[in-house]
Design brief:
Strand content of chain D: 15-25%
Oligomer: heterotetramer
Distance between the termini of chain D: 43 Å
Structural class of chain A: alpha/beta
Number of strands of chain A: 7
Mean pLDDT of chain A: 80
CATH topology of one domain in chain D: Alpha-Beta Plaits
Chains: A alpha/beta (165), B mainly alpha (397), C alpha+beta (360), D alpha+beta (168)
Order of helices and strands of chain D: HEEEEHEEHEEHEEE
Strand content of chain A: 25-35%
CATH class of one domain in chain D: Alpha Beta
CATH superfamily of chain A: NADH:ubiquinone oxidoreductase Nqo5 subunit
CATH architecture of one domain in chain D: 2-Layer Sandwich
CATH class of chain A: Alpha Beta
CATH topology of chain A: Beta Polymerase, domain 2
Helix content of chain D: 10-25%
Low-confidence stretches of chain D: none
Largest sheet of chain A: 5 strands, mixed
């Protein structure tokens, strides 16, 4: 029992360290949320590439678990969330950093992070076709899962209603 | 008319149709016999042969269709029908045996005993299917390939000595004839793949070509050992020389090389590259349907029987074996021993099929052009050594 | 040399419901482009129209072979948002089900590996032995394949006592049979010759591409969510993570074999340790407060993660499913470059790619 | 040499299997034995009772026609609909409406059983629901009320031998 509480405390310490590190580095970070093993950072679109570079090079988060788009039609925004994790550093393998940014719904354009994490290739393609978010710098932004002749609005947007629902 | 739902009801229907046809034909026949004299003679023979079947045999002998005629040998025994029957039953055995090895039951319902009639049922099914020719294929080539492949396989049966005197065509160079016929197969496979005008069949055909060319040479050289010892190219004489000792004891390496080459030549599963299903759909068989497909399969199994028979003849002492039937049945005894040995060779090939995955083309070619070739030469040198040291007299060849 | 473009799939015995566009030069693949999407169902969109409970039978559909592994992270995410702690007996039953599913899925993997290599016996044996574990899962969960067994707050019903005895017998039998698997398949000289050194994915590449599951561990990275980011009762259990440094198709199959052994050991430990008690919290209503949660588990094919956003309503606001197959899709163009056409099936199936799971 | 030993090993392994018992059973002649008589739910404790989830059984006298099962099924497979059965007069069910289940849509998840607070809808261990047309897969309340037929003999179960498994 003592042991588990011990690792718990170290977990919180590690998390705090990571978060403090990020905060001190980027003083204009919009928001940092810390839950056990999960850290969420919200950054401005312009800072996305810098933060990603820092997380990859200095913190050692070497791959991306998933790229998710979230549609917020009320505030006319999309949120793009990169979940980042690591294989290289064994001490922080249990921590997942969610790096998110908000972009305008009218002009959905963001920077592709494929140069930093090659593992985002297919996830970004999927987010592109499901939300219509354009990832600048992605080498092959084409349809992946949807049929070639899909000519409706991107289906995971909230204003797309699946037939029968 | 009730619905045909099971295979047995289908067979019943078939038998009813055949009996009906027979009755109708008999009536027509007896009507005809009153007007045409030769038919009347035939009718007499038919009627009297019910009491005395030898009359019928004599009559057939006169006409050139008797038991000793070439026609009977080619068409019935030891020719096509016999081989096709063995092929069908080896298909059944293969399915049943592999099923046993794989924790399942295998064919069960067609035929009352353990699915014995399953191959026949498959043939019946295939006959009633539609032959589809791809629109862009070379139609005549495409449809002639099954016939060509079947003919090649059947031609191998011509030189196969089943027992003393029961051989379709005895030749002084029957070993060479075998290699000449086997050499035809890759050409037919290539034509079949090309005529389909599709990518997968073509790749399969090219693979088949590579594979079969690579294995002619080790096979030929391993056969050379047998030819050196016996001093003849005649398969019947090769069998006679083995009356005391089988050549597999004299040259096990040669037998091993020949057996491997045989499986490779037959495209059986460790070496079924031309029809590798998971890689290239079904290779050169991809576009074939119905009885065109069935013919190719039948040809493969007839070739299987023929090659196993040749292995038996060359290395396992052909028809020689202890007398198990009473005197007067020597020929039948020989046939039984030949068949048993051939089936054992086939079963060994089936076991190998059950436990091995498919090999890759580069591994196969390397194996063929290096290890098997070296082994076959080693076999040849050993044979020469045996001949030089006159060891051969000691074992009594 | 002229090039030949070959479309493998979707109607091809060696592809599954997806297409790989190959460019061949001679017998060598110089380019492989995967084209998934033939079985896309839009589960992520449809999940926004169903309540949290109604989602359960549907979200396990894409990963039918590993139904518990597919639904496990979803349940964890919902419970994380609801902030409830599940009774311990339920946790153990969940782990037992997850490991049974891992064995079932891995057996299917071995079966298809066998038939892709033309080894029909290796197809039939695992399919037959799957029945043993499907039968066990049926005894616990009341269904053979799609269980819908895990619910927020526990599991749906208690495990009958007969399972203990049957599972012990099943594990004893299967451990013996695994040795035969090794003899007939893994150590078969022809199989070794064909798959050793084929489809190399180096350790650096595996990390760079974010590969998951057995494919990752076959490339020498000792990473498993069960140990790294432990969940449920895995921290109380003693098991090994098999790792191989060979990075090839053979070692991927070997990892699957070893993981089945480890899973059986986990099942045995669970059955020994399982405490008595309730198996489900009596939740009258599933009310999920607003917030977001990211949860991941080690499913049979690798890390399966859910990113769940709730706005406090009856239905989730956004469900992001990240399946291991989709994450491993990126390896196909990388490891297929330079292998022979004949090595396409073992390379493709080596990464345990399941089109339905990838397309969702 | 290693090649030959390994090859002989795999042949031995294959031949060993030939002498073991078979795994398969002959389905229409034999049927799988399934323990218990189906999945039930205890609404007070909120826990299901272990059993096979096959076709449903509806206790007409307990059903109040509350449509909770229909609401649960809405998002899952839309298999359940309420149907009026005029000649069934049950005191708790004033409108005489009962669920009918379309088995061409049902996924057998059993959440309708969990949703029922009156212990009126359970699942049985009958799994042989086949038909030549879709219409006969639509089970009316009266059909659902019929308890399943006893499975014809012989039934088989998975048995563990010394080094093999078989159905017997």
């Amino acid at each position: 029992m003592l042991e588990t509480s011990n690792t718990e405390s170290t977990l919180i310490e590690r998390e705090q360290k990571l978060a403090a590190d990020l905060k001190s580095r980027f003083d204009d970070v919009l928001e940092i949320t810390i839950k056990p093993k999960r850290i969420k950072i919200k950054v401005k679109l312009e800072k996305l590439l810098d933060t990603a570079n820092y997380i990859n090079n200095n913190l050692g988060f070497d791959h991306s678990t998933s790229v998710s788009g979230v549609d917020y039609p009320n505030s006319k925004e999309f949120e793009v969330v990169y979940h980042l994790s690591t294989y290289g550093r064994e001490d922080i393998r249990d921590i997942v950093i969610a790096l998110s940014t908000r972009i305008s719904r009218d002009e959905p354009k963001t920077q592709s992070l494929i140069s930093i994490w090659p593992s985002v290739e297919y996830s970004e393609r999927e987010t592109f076709e499901m939300f219509g978010i354009i990832f600048v710098g992605h080498p092959k932004l084409e349809k992946l899962l949807l049929p070639e002749d899909w000519n409706d609005i991107p289906p995971l947007r909230k204003d797309f209603k699946p037939p029968g629902r | 008319m009730s619905k045909i739902q099971t295979f047995s009801s289908f067979v019943k229907r078939l038998i009813i149709v055949i009996i009906g046809l027979l009755i109708t034909l008999t009536l027509l026949f007896s009507l005809l016999a009153y007007f045409v004299p030769s038919v009347k003679e035939l009718q007499n023979i038919l009627l009297s042969s019910i009491g005395n079947p030898s009359l019928m045999l004599n009559y057939l002998d006169q006409k050139g269709f008797g038991l000793n005629s070439l026609f009977f040998k080619v068409a019935v025994f030891p020719g096509f029908t016999w081989a096709a029957l063995i092929a069908a039953e080896i298909i059944w055995f293969e399915r049943k045996f592999l099923a046993k090895m794989q924790m399942r039951v295998g064919p069960l319902y067609a035929g009352k005993i353990a699915g014995l009639l399953q191959p026949i049922a498959d043939v019946v099914k295939l006959v009633f299917k539609e032959i589809i020719t791809p629109s862009s294929s070379d139609k005549w080539f495409f449809l002639s390939i099954p016939i060509i492949i079947t003919s090649i396989a059947a031609a191998l049966l011509a030189v196969l000595p089943v027992s003393e005197g029961w051989i379709i065509m005895r030749s002084d160079v029957s070993v060479l004839i075998i290699f000449a016929i086997v050499g035809f197969v890759p050409i037919a496979v290539l034509l079949g793949g090309w005529a389909s005008n599709s990518k997968y069949p073509f790749i399969g055909a090219l693979r088949g070509l590579h594979q079969m060319i690579a294995f002619e040479i080790p096979m030929l050289i391993s056969t050379l050992g047998v030819v050196l010892v016996t001093g003849t190219l005649d398969l019947v004489n090769i069998v006679y020389t083995q009356s005391n000792v089988w050549f597999i004891l004299l040259m096990p390496i040669g037998a091993f090389v020949f057996f491997s080459c045989m499986i490779i030549e037959l495209e059986r599963i460790p070496f079924d590259l031309p029809e590798a299903e998971s890689e290239i759909a079904s290779g050169y068989l991809t576009e074939y349907t119905s009885m065109a497909f069935g013919n190719i399969q039948l040809a493969i199994y007839i070739r299987f029987y023929a090659m196993a028979g040749i292995f038996t003849t060359m290395f396992l002492g052909g028809w020689y074996g202890p007398q198990i039937l009473p005197n007067g049945f020597e020929i039948a005894n020989q046939v039984i021993w030949f068949t048993i040995k051939t089936l054992l060779v086939m079963i060994l090939a089936i076991v190998l099929r059950g436990v091995n995955p498919r090999v890759r083309i580069d591994l196969l070619l390397r194996m063929g052009w290096s290890s098997l070739l070296i082994l076959s030469f080693a076999n040849l040198f050993l044979v020469i050594l045996i001949l030089q040291t006159e060891l051969i007299q000691m074992v009594g060849v | 040399m002229s090039k030949l473009s070959l479309s493998v799939g979707p109607q091809h015995p060696g592809s599954g419901h997806m297409r790989i566009i190959l460019t061949l030069s001679g017998d060598y693949i110089i380019e492989a482009i995967p084209d998934p999407g033939y079985v896309h169902r839009g589960e992520e969109k449809l999940a926004e129209y169903r309540t949290y409970i109604q989602n359960i039978p549907h979200l396990e559909r894409p990963v039918l072979l590993d139904a518990t592994g597919a639904i496990f992270p979803y349940i964890l995410a919902v419970e994380d948002l609801m902030n409830i702690i599940v009774p311990e007996r339920a946790q153990f039953i969940r782990v037992i089900m997850a490991e049974l599913n891992r064995i079932i899925s891995h057996l299917y993997y071995m079966a298809i590996y066998g038939i892709f290599m033309g080894h029909s016996t290796m197809f039939m044996w695992p399919v037959g032995d799957r029945e043993v574990f499907i039968d066990l899962a049926n005894n616990i969960a009341g269904q053979r394949v799609s269980y819908a067994f895990l619910v927020p707050g526990g599991v749906r019903n208690d495990m009958p006592e007969i399972v203990k005895e049957r599972a012990e017998k099943a594990c004893n039998y299967f451990e013996k049979h695994l040795i035969e698997y090794e003899r007939i398949f893994m150590n078969n000289p022809l199989f070794e010759k064909r798959t050793k050194g084929v489809g190399i994915l180096s350790k650096q590449d595996a990390i760079r591409l974010g590969v998951v599951g057995p494919t990752l561990r076959a490339s020498g990275v000792k990473s498993d969510v069960r140990k790294d980011d432990t969940y449920s009762v895995y921290d109380q259990l003693d098991f090994e993570i098999p790792v191989s440094n060979a990075c090839d198709s053979w070692s991927r199959a070997w990892i699957h074999m070893e993981e089945m052994r480890q899973s059986m050991s986990i099942i045995r430990q669970c059955l020994k340790r399982i405490p008595a008690g309730p198996v489900k919290l009596n939740l009258k209503q599933i009310k999920v407060p607003p917030g977001e949660s990211f949860s991941r588990v080690e499913a049979a094919r690798g890390t399966l993660s859910y990113y769940l956003i709730s706005d406090g309503g009856k239905v989730p606001y956004r469900v992001r499913i990240m399946t291991p197959s989709f994450r491993n899709l990126i390896t196909i163009p990388n490891i297929m470059k330079g292998v022979m056409l004949a090595d396409m099936p073992p390379t493709y199936w080596g990464i345990d790619y399941w089109p339905v799971e990838a397309d969702r | 040499m290693v090649f030959i030993i390994k090859m002989l090993n795999s042949i031995r392994s294959g031949m060993n299997q030939v002498f073991k018992r078979r795994m398969t059973f002959r389905y229409p002649d034999q049927r799988l034995f399934i323990e218990g008589d189906g999945y039930k739910y205890d609404p007070k404790a909120g826990i299901g009772i272990n059993g096979y989830r096959g076709r449903h059984i509806l206790y007409l006298e307990k059903c109040t026609g509350c449509s909770l099962c229909v609401m649960m099924c809405q998002g899952i497979s839309q298999a359940i609909e309420m149907k009026n059965v005029p000649n069934k007069q049950i005191p708790v069910n004033k409108k005489s409406i009962f669920p009918q289940i379309d088995y061409s849509k049902c996924v057998y998840c059993g959440f309708c059983v969990d949703a029922c607070p009156f212990e009126a809808l359970f699942e049985t261990n009958e799994y042989e629901i086949v038909s030549y047309d879709r219409e006969s897969l639509l089970f009316t309340p009266e059909q659902l009320a019929i308890p399943p037929k006893k499975r014809p003999e012989p039934t088989v179960n998975l048995k563990y031998g010394d080094s093999d498994v078989y159905h017997g």
